[in-house]
Amino acid sequence: MDHFEDFKDTETLVERPNRFQALLHLILGFLFFIGSLFILGSLAVIICSYLISGTTIDLSAMMDLLNDLKSHPFVLKLFIFISSSLPMIVASLLTLIFIKATAKDYLLLNFPKSMKWFLLSMVFVFISIPLMGVMLEVNKLIDFSQWPDFHKWLITQENTNNGIYEAMVGDKGAMSFLSSILFMALVPALVEEIFFRGFLMNAFNGLFKNMHIAIFITAIIFSLIHMQFMKIIPMFFLAIVFGYAAYWTGTIWTSIIAHFINNTLAVIQLYYLTDGSYEEALEQSSKIAPALNIVFGIGVIVLFYYLQRNSTTKTQNFYV
Q1: How far apart are CA 103 and CA 196, in angstroms?
Q2: Residues 315 and 205 sit within 8 Å (Cβ to Cβ)
Q3: Which SS3 state, helix, strand or coil, does residue 7 take?
Q4: What are phi and psi of 126, to 5 degrees?
Q5: 55-66 pLDDT per residue, tens
Q6: Measured in whole angstroms, how far is the alpha carbon of residue 279 from the centre of its chain?
Q7: How far apart are CA 85 and CA 187, in angstroms?
Q8: What is the DSSP string of 152-176?
Q9: Residue environment code for 162-178, b if the CB has 16+ CB neighbours within 10 A, otherwise e
Q10: Which residue intervals of 54-173 are DSSP H helices?
Q11: Which of 124, 128, 226, 264 would give a disulfide with 241, using CB separation of 3.0 to 4.6 Å?
């Protein structure tokens, strides 16, 4: 049984919360997230519409604003940051403050305790990433066309998302590239890992008393919230990989760094290898030779087994 003394906040937290409190914390975080989405989404519309036109618009015109922002890449990045990224941070931090815990203990923002398990977990991530192409091919086996209306909506949603990513690239100059590294690689890595692998995974572990279940449920939510259903299996797979990397090392800095590197590679691919085409970037990721996929797959399985059996820095349950 893990010891509360290892991660209690001696100034504020008197005793470890239980399973019921974990559920309440999840609900609280969800409410904070929904409220932040509405407030910060409204703020993003006001700020960004003023930046590009000198006037503010009504919230009902948000989709028109998104189309207008495609010709203003930096403001578009700012809009996505305020409306999508900030709500995750706000929800996580407000929940943290409300339950009187520390970011180090509750959100796993402590530094890795063992360089060995940190480096091995990073290797696990890097040999898993090439398998995203295989997962994309598996995703293509799902016949969405048997649900015509749903399939039409999926295509529309996918095209909208791809168009936004491509618009963020802008003129592909040095400043555009650096701002993309910031807003498309670093910021998403930080906020998504704090929200998903920090807050959600921890709370689900407290609720189910099982980190494997927590990792899988968090991965499902991660893949759904990105609204990219034509590649939902690769997104789910990546979330599983990040989840275990954080679990084995007892810190989300592992998944933050891995997430950042993965996003940075995607940005580099958009800027310098596919001329800004998001669809082409996806197609390139699925062109790895089958023999290499087999090697990577075997490596992932072997390393997963080794880390799961031997890691001495696994995340301890914050809850009783």
Answers
A1: 14
A2: yes
A3: coil
A4: -70, -30
A5: 877 766 777 788
A6: 20
A7: 7
A8: HHHHHHHHHHHHHHHHHHTT--HHH
A9: bebbbbbbbeeeeebbe
A10: 62-69, 73-80, 86-98, 103-106, 115-128, 132-140, 148-169
A11: 128
The confidence score (pLDDT) of residue 289 equals: 76
Task: Please state, in angstroms and rounded to a whole number, the distance separating the CA atoms of residues 128 and 249.
Answer: 17
Q: Which two tokens stand for residue 243?
A: 């989840």
Task: Give the length of the chain.
Answer: 320
Consecutive H or E run containing 222: helix 211-225
Tokens of 102: 């520390």
Q: Cα–Cα distance between 117 and 127 in angstroms, integer?
A: 15
In this predicted structure, what is the pLDDT of residue 283? 60
**Angstrom distance (rounded) from CA 101 to CA 129:** 34
Write the CA distances from 150 to 27, 284, 293, integer angstroms: 29, 27, 32
Rounded to whole angstroms, how far apart are CA atoms 83 and 87? 7
The low-confidence residues of the chain, meaning pLDDT below 70, are 1-14, 59-60, 275-287
User: Residue 59: what residue type?
Assistant: L
Q: Is 276 left (phi over 0), alpha (psi -120 to 50) or beta?
A: left
Tokens of 205: 């572990």
Distance, in Å, from the CA atom of 318 to the CA atom of 9, rounded to the nearest integer, reads: 11
Distance CA 117, CA 136 (A): 29
Spacing of C-alpha 227 from chain mean position: 12
CA Rg value for the chain: 20
- Angle, helices 232-249 vs 201-208, to 10°: value is 80
What letter does residue 15 receive in the DSSP assignment?
Answer: S
User: Is 255 in a helix, a strand, or coil?
Assistant: helix
